[in-house]
Amino acid sequence: MQTASPSSTLLGDRSPAEFLETYWQKRPLVVRDALPDFESPLSPNELAGLACEEGVESRLVLKEGGAYPWELRHGPFDPEDFLDLPETHWTVLVQEVDRLLPEVGALLDRFRFLPDWRLDDIMVSYAPTEGTVGPHIDNYDVFLIQGLGHRRWQIGTTPVETEEIVPDLDVRILADFEPEEEFVLGPGDLLYLPPRVAHHGVATDDECMTYSVGFRAPRHRDLVGDFLQRAMERIDPDARYSDPDLTPVEHAGALHEAAREKVRRLLRDLVTDTDVDRWLGTYLTRPSRDRTAVPPASPVPPDTLVAALREGTDLRRGPVAHLAFIEHDDGTATLFVNGEATTLDAALAYAAPLLTGRQVIPADTLTPHLDDDAFVDLLSTLVDDGVLELDEA
């Protein structure tokens, strides 16, 4: 299987291996002209339009000009809300823009040298002059791509272990931020920040749009809690501890080895490699915010799908499409789609890497397999479920 690589300039003159060894979760990196030909797929007005849509997570942060300093407002907004804003010192932020616009989602393919499941979403922000969300830290890695205008960044260089937050504000702002580096980013420039590195970005003009590629970092508590919940669902609710082989005990107050081993065995049986792997695949591909894929208005007949692919029409992920796979030693594979697991037999296992790890699936990678009925059936199911769609554009 061929591993996707970033665009030639995304990391400057660094290879993905060098970036991961030297910078990933270790120290910040600025890359000038990381995307020299990047043109923002959105205008500020279009971003404001998204912030007015139902089902879209959006925020407004007003450092000045609101009802009080650092006022935070949540969308969806009305268009009139933007007409009443001050000329400066505010920011609008919209989450999951990659889900809303394929042109934005295509940015994620620049980062396929990283595990797909680690990618979270692309948040897009717009700010006029002096717009900012204040000095803060994030608990995850983030790549900040300047799409329009300019933003002045002040950053720390090492992770903050314990932060002090300014009290009684709508937003979490560091009370003791002391920047160690400062620079201005323009269109196509990129800033990488490891988790918990303090940063403060301020728009220096009225065209400032920033694309934030954020990464998932599940809490250990969430992982363990979800696994235990799934494990509970597999246990017979009527099963109880039993000991028909019990023999007389010498000390009634002792927890004897035989009893301890019975309970240890019960717990060990819950965490076999197979069970953990299957749970993890479903957990990591489960859509956030309880979203579900929306099937097309009418099913796409397999013959129509095959003809479109043979004519060169690519497939792309639908708005809600989270896919991953695990290859097994026996040649089979498990394909995980939006929290559901499907076993692919050894003859079809090749499909798993073809259909995962990218936003757009080129038609020419699929056409060599269109004589395989099982493969076409799998494609048809994913298209009819709204997970994949023909890229008519």
Count of structural domains: 2
Gross CATH architecture of the largest domain: Sandwich
Instruction: List the quaternary state of the chains.
Output: single chain
The CATH first-level class of the largest domain comes to Mainly Beta
Strand content: 15-25%
Anisotropy-based shape? globular
Q: What proportion of the residues is helical, as a percent range?
A: 10-25%
Order of helices and strands: HEHEEHEHHEEEEEEEHHHHEEEEHEHHE
Gyration radius from CA atoms, angstroms = 25 Å
Number of strands: 17
What is the average of the pLDDT values? Answer: 95
Low-confidence stretches: none
- Count of separate DSSP helical elements: 12
The side-by-side strand order for the widest beta sheet comes to 1-9-6-11-5-4-2-3
